[in-house]
Design goal:
Length: 72
Amino acid sequence: MQTPCIHLCSLEPSTGFCAGCGRTLQEIGSWTSYSDTERMRIMALLPARLAGAATLSNHMKSSLTRGPERPL
């Protein structure tokens, strides 16, 4: 059975996706019960999920380093 797991398991609170594979907790827990077709469909979504999560994470990090915005 093919799996996207890379053993870097940590759910990102801002997205609900695993930082390692991009799956949701429900997808991880149900992975073995999914059909091959369903697993392939989910795996096709993962690169975009991980790219989106990385963009969000980078945006949040840059916001923290800039500090709070000041009113004009």
